[in-house]
Amino acid sequence: MDTNANDARQPDNGAPLEVAETAIPYAVDATADTTPASPNYRALNLAKLQAQGMVTHDGGRTSVAEDFRIIKRPLLRNARATGPDAIRHGNLIVVTSAMPGEGKTYCAVNLAMSIAMEMDMTVLLVDADVARPSVLKVLGLPAEPGLMDVLLDERLAMSDVILKTNVATLSILPAGRSNKHATELLASRAMSRMLSEIASRYADRIVVFDSPPLLITSEAHALVGQMGQVVMVVEAETTTQHAVKEALRQIESCEHINLIYNKTKGFPGNEYYGYGYYD
């Protein structure tokens, strides 16, 4: 198992990270605040997200931004692979965890934001944690119709519920309304057809799914089995080795599994969190 690790430095009190003067190139709609592009347009408060330690276009070279540059690179390499190295649905990346509270949504949003910085990529961020959706909440947006609504209503198109943002290369598909048959819906032929369409319709699109935890819900298994790449978030010094092994056992049929070691402590006496990456 190859190992790549980069220790991030982020205050755990939510204070803004130190920002470099040079902004990272990023596709942002400069008129977003006053000229919505469509009824499905939503403006993200990028300054607020940056202050919360998230990756944003003008956040500079923060350690979190650098960590996700490292994390995304092998995922993008796999997604772009062709010929004998090509991965089926390689551009569909699901972010999950063994247990709740390990930071999977935070990592999914940051991963999507980081990929959106690529010069030749667009990103669709899907909230597939349909029992406890968190993506819109993290981004400061209200609940909206989404994935579950499309699966439940054949008259509803995915384009009807995808949200465009002031990050021109980033779109969002909310979880939508909750449903007691969510597992069956995620495992349905309608979902498979939707995933195939998402994966093949746009050659330059990466789709990042925020999935339910593996050891808590059955929805995660229905979803993970249809993805090309899996990213599992492990909370440092909290998630037990048994939980990690059990979660990995449940997705062992997936060929491309990556781990993010999240919330690692810094040097003794420092109140820092960080990330490690394992493939």
From TrEMBL:
Coiled coil: none annotated. Keywords: ATP-binding, Kinase, Nucleotide-binding, Transferase, Tyrosine-protein kinase. Gene3D superfamilies: P-loop containing nucleotide triphosphate hydrolases (3.40.50.300). It catalyses: L-tyrosyl-[protein] + ATP = O-phospho-L-tyrosyl-[protein] + ADP + H(+). GO terms for cellular component: plasma membrane. Residues 92-255 form the AAA domain. One of its GO terms (molecular function) is protein tyrosine kinase activity. Pfam families: AAA_31. Its EC number is 2.7.10.2. It is an enzyme of class 2 (transferase). The keyword ATP-binding applies. Belongs to the CpsD/CapB family. This is non-specific protein-tyrosine kinase. It comes from Janthinobacterium psychrotolerans.
